[in-house]
Structures are given as structure tokens and as C-alpha cells.
Design a protein that fits this description.
The protein contains eleven helices and 14 strands. It is α/β, with parallel strands linked by helices. The protein folds into two domains: about 110 residues, Aspartate Aminotransferase, domain 1 (Alpha-Beta Complex); about 240 residues, Type I PLP-dependent aspartate aminotransferase-like (Major domain) (Aspartate Aminotransferase, domain 2). A seven-stranded mixed β-sheet has the order 2-10-9-8-5-3-4, sandwiched between helices. A five-stranded mixed β-sheet has the order 1-13-14-12-11, with helices on one face. A hairpin with a 4-residue loop joins strand 6 and strand 7. It binds 4-hydroxy-L-threonine-5-monophosphate and 2-oxoglutaric acid.
Length: about 350
């Protein structure tokens, strides 16, 4: 038994009601039901309608369930890129999407800025031949984010046929995306939805679907069981091609009910208020300083601080008080900490973390 509160960037703290929903799932033997049964189809439909409501998704968008964001990177390339993709890169995960495109034999080009920096969109030139433009709204490794107003400028810079993909893995539902300015967005549930890992959610519009169908018509492989046409044909019947993560789809549907009851606006306001508490503290600390220099590029959900004390020592001091923050990513493991500020983190928990850090570290 542990009372530890995880401020790690994912997996992270579970949404407070998850244990209760787990118990209900066990009591109702959700783990044993067939994924072709009406009971499962109702769970699936419940999760999709909850997502549509929370994310204010337009009708020309579909919701697909995959295993992870990593899988969505691979499926996105397979299903929408014949020759060339273009990537904005400013950290490890945006770089990984770029690499996956190359690994799948496409020509991947990029516009890269240093780790921890955001983008000056006016400077970006997008090759007219790029079929997919990959934007990272929130780079989990570095804490740099892209304001929605900047995302909305990209369409005018890309080729008419280009599909604009937005990585909101560790920020959704915080950014109020304008879905008419993009074609796809995706995330995984172990971040802001406060669930165990093992479920990726892919939102994609009719233009992405038409592109996948066009590739199929040309005889190009778009993958097998998790191709867009295969996923869609099952999604229309509230199912997936494979036996999916039924338990997590159920938990998602339940957490979405609560998030919708609270309202996405209230979640966003609370996220901003908690982010301010954390940034104000880091900004005034003697040990920490804010890693992302431009305020407009500072993520409200994954907050990164440079630390003089090694990150492992910060966590060692927090441990007796049942709190853990994330270490830095990759080569920043000891020189940065990452603090997740997700909907599952209560204001009182964030206040307690800031208070403890102040007391223990200064
Ligand atoms: N930390 C990654 C990121 O933020 O992009 C993330 O783990 C990718 O998601 P999956 O592990 O669900 O593939
Ligand atoms: O620490 C993180 O950002 C998550 C790490 C992760 O998912 C990965 O490295 O694959």
C-alpha cells in the first residue's frame, strides 16, 4: 500500500475515482466480456460520445482506439504518407515521430529548434510536397508547447493537400484546438486522462480517411488489422478489429463522465491556476529555474525546471512525504525535473508539493 502522489509525466497520478471504477469493473466482470457483445459495444459508444463531448469534436472527425501514441505515429505514416512527411522537432518525442517516418521508408524532413525551445511559426517553411505536417503542441520531454494560435497559422503555409497532425499526447484536453485548421490529433490516456497506460486515442477527419483510401486504391500497403479502413469499419459498429483493452476503454468512459460533469472549461481553468502556482514557485526558487525561456511556450501540463540538486536527490527528499516528480528526459535525467500538472492532480496536492519543495529545497 502506498499513498505516494505521482507528479510524473506519464504514467502519472490516476484520476481519483479510478479505484472505484476498477472495483465496479471487477464486480461486473468487465475483463471477461466478449469484445463482440452488446455490453462491449455500449461501453465503446459511451467512451466515444464522452470524448466527443469533452473535446467538442466536429462531425467530420472519427475517434479510433489504438494501443499507444507510438502506434499512432506508425499508423499515421503508413496510412497517410506515400512519399514525404515534414516534422517540427524540439525534443525527443517529436524527433521519434520523424524517425519513424524514415524507418518506414518515407522521406522525412524536419524543422528543428533546440530542446526546450518553442517555434517561431513565421520562420517555418514547409515543403509543398509534404503530405503530412507533424506539429507537437506539447513536447513531453522538454515542456515546450505551441499556442493554438500558432497551430492555426500552419494550414496557410502547407500544401493544399497536406494533412496537419497535432501531438497532444500530454496536454489534451487542455488546448482548445480549432479542428477546422488541422486534420488529426492524438494522445494516450496515461497522461491527462489519469488512467493506466495501454490505450492511444486517434482523432482524424474525412481528409485523412480519404488519403488512406486513395493509398489503398493505388495498391499501397497501409498495414493490416490497424489500418485506417480496418479500424473504421469496426468503429462504425462500436468495435475494434482485435480484442482491445476493454478494461481501459471502460475506465475511460467513466472518467469522461466525471470530466464532462466538471466541464472542460473548468478543467482548463484549474490547469492554468495550478500551473501558475508551480511556475511562480520555480521562478522564485534558489535551486530551480524555469527551463522554457519564453512564457508563451511554457507548457501548463508538463512543467520543466532546471535543477542544481540532482533530480534523484530532489525525489529522495520528497519520498518520505509520499510525493514523486519526474526526472529529466534522456541526457537531462539529473539536471531537470518534470512536474506533471494533469486533471487528476488536485489543487490541494499541487499546493502541498510546492510547499514541500519550498521547505525541503528552497
Ligand atoms: N512520453 C511519450 C510522449 O509524451 O510522447 C509517450 O509515452 C508516448 O505515448 P505512448 O507511450 O502511449 O506511446
Ligand atoms: O518520461 C516520459 O516522458 C515518458 C517516457 C516514455 O514513455 C518513453 O520514453 O517511452
Amino acid at each position: 500500500m502506498t499513498n505516494k502522489v505521482y507528479f510524473t509525466p506519464g504514467p502519472s497520478e490516476l484520476y481519483p475515482s479510478v479505484p472505484e471504477h476498477m472495483q465496479a469493473a471487477m464486480a461486473n466482470k468487465i475483463g471477461s466480456i466478449s469484445h463482440r457483445s452488446q455490453q462491449f459495444k455500449d461501453i465503446y459508444a459511451h467512451a466515444v460520445s464522452g470524448l466527443r463531448q469533452l473535446l467538442q469534436l466536429p462531425d467530420n472527425y472519427e475517434v479510433l482506439f489504438l494501443s499507444s501514441a507510438n502506434e499512432i505515429w506508425e499508423r499515421a505514416i503508413q496510412n497517410t504518407v506515400e512519399h514525404e512527411s515534414f516534422h517540427l522537432v524540439n525534443g525527443s518525442f517529436s524527433k521519434r515521430f520523424y524517425e519513424i517516418s524514415s524507418e518506414l521508408g518515407r522521406k522525412a524532413t524536419k524543422y528543428e529548434v533546440a530542446f526546450g525551445e518553442g517555434f517561431n511559426v513565421d520562420k517555418i517553411e514547409i515543403p509543398a510536397s509534404a503530405e503530412l505536417v507533424a506539429l507537437v503542441q506539447n513536447e513531453t520531454s522538454s515542456g515546450a508547447c505551441m499556442p493554438v494560435a500558432d497551430i492555426n497559422k500552419i494550414r496557410a503555409k502547407a500544401g493544399e493537400e497536406a494533412l496537419i497532425f497535432v501531438d497532444v499526447v500530454s496536454s489534451m484536453p487542455n488546448p482548445a484546438l480549432d479542428y477546422s485548421k488541422i486534420d488529426s490529433a492524438y494522445f494516450s490516456v496515461q497522461k491527462c486522462f489519469g488512467l493506466p497506460a495501454g490505450l492511444g486515442v486517434w482523432l482524424l477527419n474525412d481528409r485523412c480517411i480519404a488519403k488512406a483510401e486513395a493509398l489503398v486504391a493505388k495498391g499501397i500497403s497501409v498495414g493490416s488489422y490497424h489500418s485506417v479502413p480496418s479500424l473504421l469499419s469496426k468503429a462504425k459498429a462500436n468495435q475494434t478489429p482485435e480484442t482491445p483493452n476493454v478494461l481501459n476503454i471502460y475506465l475511460l468512459s467513466q472518467v469522461l463522465d466525471e470530466m464532462n460533469k466538471k466541464s472542460v472549461d473548468a478543467i482548463r481553468q484549474e490547469t492554468e491556476a495550478k500551473a501558475k502556482l508551480i511556475y511562480d514557485y520555480i521562478g522564485s526558487s534558489e535551486n530551480f529555474d524555469i527551463a522554457v525561456k519564453k512564457p508563451e511556450h511554457r507548457s501548463p501540463t508538463t512543467i520543466i525546471a532546471n535543477t542544481k540538486l540532482p533530480a534523484s536527490e530532489v525525489n529522495k527528499r520528497l519520498a518520505p512525504f509520499d510525493m514523486a516528480v519526474g526526472s529529466g528526459y534522456g541526457s537531462y535525467k539529473e539536471s531537470q525535473i518534470r512536474i506533471a500538472n494533469f486533471p487528476a492532480h488536485a489543487v490541494t496536492q499541487v499546493q502541498a508539493l510546492v510547499y514541500k519543495l519550498q521547505e525541503l529545497i528552497g
